[in-house]
Amino acid sequence: MRDESRDWTPLHARVHQELRRRQLLVRGARVLLAVSGGQDSICLLKLCRDLQPKWNWTLAIAHCDHRWPTDPGIATHVERVAREFGLPFWLIVADRVEETEAAARAWRYRVLGDLARERGFAALATGHTASDRAETLLYNFMRGAGADGLQALVWQRPLVPNVRLVRPLLTATRTEIKAFCQEFQLPVWEDATNRELRFARARIRHELLPYLSEHFNPQVESVLAQTAEVLRADVDYLEAQAADIANAAIAPEGLRRSRLRGEPLALQRRVVRQWLQTELARAPTFAQIDAVVSAINAPQRTRSSTMATNYGRAWAEVAGDWICWRTE
């Protein structure tokens, strides 16, 4: 493995600038790196190790073993890489084998967040890229997500108390990162599961995005990642506006219609979604949200369709200036 920490590539410079501009990681921070062994996380490891003298970070590596059939050897490989980079290493082994991508992802974030908090790390850094952002946007779009889902994979967010999840590589595409790993001869583990087309994200990565790149736009990954970034700013603004309205519109009696009349539909929907999430204890559907929005200007005693909750069946009903929550 070539390890010339003095080499300074355009990717080094870009990540360094994004860290400062977005205030992702402060100087002297304790940073836990989530390293799967694949090219993205190994690239993140190399970049952070090279930037460490400039930022005075304390770095360490964590790896999650899902106990999948394709996993044998990966944990040992990552531990060896950690030794070569001179960094502490922690291995977390799953108690059971998760069958879906979503369940495995939720487990990883939970156990990595807990480890970071227990060991005093202020941040957990992952190697998500612009390509991952493009894939997530397409995946959520095809599932019918709104702007909130399309802007997923943000630069940083709270993970557990006192620990933030940060993604320093969101401007880099997978092609750039592959070239970086080849230039420095980094020890990348080729994960066979990344090519299993039974996973939706693998099909998006290996079939849909190459098709879009070839037939529509060679820069499709970057364009989609930029779209996610634009949507992020829009969502942040709308959520802040909706929160102010919700404070005045949501009360123990229900949802105050007069406070919502005259507001843009985008804000009405967001306030109604916040209210329904509290009542349903789960994310409401688009149809449920729109049914309540239509009640803002509906006649007295107008009822929505019945909705299932954790404690039975319920509906929204117009009563004077209020949209009230009724149960049976």
UniProtKB/TrEMBL annotation:
Q: What is its main location?
A: cytoplasm
Which InterPro entries does the UniProt entry name for this protein? Answer: Rossmann-like_a/b/a_fold, TilS/TtcA_N, tRNA_Ile_lys_synt, tRNA_Ile_lys_synt_N, tRNA_Ile_lys_synt_subst-bd
Biological process (GO) annotations held by this record are: tRNA modification
Recorded hits in CDD domains, A to Z, give: TilS_N
State the EC number(s).
6.3.4.19
UniProt enzyme class: ligase
Keyword tRNA processing present in the record's keywords: the answer is yes
Alphabetical GO CC annotations of the entry are:
cytoplasm
Which Pfam families does the record cross-reference, listed alphabetically?
ATP_bind_3, TilS
Q: SUPFAM superfamilies in the record, alphabetically?
A: Adenine nucleotide alpha hydrolases-like, MesJ substrate recognition domain-like
Query: Is the keyword Transferase assigned to this protein?
Result: no
Q: Which residues form the tRNA(Ile)-lysidine synthase substrate-binding domain?
A: 255-296
Question: What keywords sit in the KW lines?
Answer: ATP-binding, Cytoplasm, Ligase, Nucleotide-binding, tRNA processing
Q: Which reaction does it catalyse?
A: cytidine(34) in tRNA(Ile2) + L-lysine + ATP = lysidine(34) in tRNA(Ile2) + AMP + diphosphate + H(+)
Highest rank taxon of the organism: Bacteria
Q: Where in the cell is it found?
A: Cytoplasm
**Molecular function as annotated in GO:** ATP binding; tRNA(Ile)-lysidine synthase activity
* Family recorded in the similarity comment: Belongs to the tRNA(Ile)-lysidine synthase family.
Q: Which purpose does this protein serve, as stated in its record?
A: Ligates lysine onto the cytidine present at position 34 of the AUA codon-specific tRNA(Ile) that contains the anticodon CAU, in an ATP-dependent manner. Cytidine is converted to lysidine, thus changing the amino acid specificity of the tRNA from methionine to isoleucine.
Concerning PANTHER family, the annotation shows: TRNA(ILE)-LYSIDINE SYNTHASE-RELATED
Q: List the HAMAP family.
A: tRNA_Ile_lys_synt
Could you give the domain comment from the record? The N-terminal region contains the highly conserved SGGXDS motif, predicted to be a P-loop motif involved in ATP binding.
**Which named protein is this?**
tRNA(Ile)-lysidine synthase
Q: List the source organism.
A: Rubidibacter lacunae KORDI 51-2
Source species taxonomy: Bacteria, Bacillati, Cyanobacteriota, Cyanophyceae, Oscillatoriophycideae
Give me the gene this protein comes from: tilS
